[in-house]
Amino acid sequence: MISEKVVFVRPPNLQKSSQWKKQGVIRCPLNISLLASFIRERGDYECSLVDLETKEALSPAEMADIVLAESPKYVCITTLTPRYPTVVRMAQQIKQLKPEVVIIVGGPHVTGSPQTTIYDGISFGIIGEGEEALLELLNTLEKGHTVSAVKNLVYRDNGTTKVNEVRPFIRNLDELHFPAWDLMELKEYLDPAYFEGNHLAMFSGRGCPYDCSFCASCVTWRRKLRLRSVENVMEEIRHIVNVLDINNLMFWDDSFASNKKRAIAICNSIIEERININYTVQIRADSLSEDLAAVLRDSGCSFAAIGVESGNDEILKRIGKKETKAQLRRAVEIMKEASLPVIASYIIGLPGDTHETIKETIDFAFELDANQSKFMILAPYPGTKVYNLAVRRGLVDPTSFEQMEKLNYYDSVAINLSEVSDENLISYQDEAYSRFDELKAV
Description:
The protein has 442 residues and is α/β, with parallel strands linked by helices. Helices cover 37% and strands 17% of the residues. The chain is globular.
């Protein structure tokens, strides 16, 4: 019996020029490789992966040709909001060339805005955790059964968009298979600023218990935190280092030390086994301690990234950060004392931000003086509290492709919830980077 072909696709990163090009920094397509691993191990499917971030200057038509060259019956595409217009255009091109192909979309955009997911060309959407939902959908379609009972599914029924009931999360993450590394283009995943050679990424857990108003994590994971065991995490690290021969790794957990005892145990295991690895983590300031910073450093942590967001305590309170400037200040002090490099990120244009509070944020960044500072303009992603606030203010057109494409953190303002103009936000971002370039050049 011939297995049906499922092709997983990562769309390219949208550039300001409206062109797509291979970037100097490319991360691995971890989410879809986890999905591919799950359905080929638990179902009767052949899988391949098309990573369009590794390709040069492609139009949606060219993307469709590359995908169809894989001879798929099913095409599964993961997408962030800024890339969704590209996904739709590519899907429409695929359906024009081969109408019988079933196109399934998932990822943060679909989860955050399921009612605006199904355009011409899109067959189904999957919200939230995708492994079990995708496998059930594929099996249901193969049997020719109705999809009305498939949980986590978005679909059209007699011209109406239906969003099915959400299934419970997978309880034991240790039972999941490791990513389908064999489907990845391992040599393509580079970040010269942080690593020498190739790098990969992994999740040691899923979810975050916090409820920051700007963060899409709580939209997907509903504030439910699930962690893999220390031994299961170590088994994956050993495979990446010893079998794949890659020594650079990024932990993509929303906060690596949500359980500090477990985080320290992972670090100590790396030290005790003398694993040669350089890795990065994202971490909350209020989880930092001297003992954690020391084992992070000694186990090969290249840097710890913390989200500072604002230099104004009232703004921090408004966005649900549940951290204060004093805690943020102390966290950076701890990392500096431990000689653990720090990357700090800031958001310009938070709800209630004024000229004064934005200046406070930039000044606070100067005070903290992290090894690297990132200044991002607020991007209200669908499903987040800031997005819902924008909806209430009448600032959102959920079907606007132009607005979606501007939600990219970098050099444009899609939805302004602050008390200053769009031009001011861009100006403050430019000023912050200019000042820090000058500081680091000294």
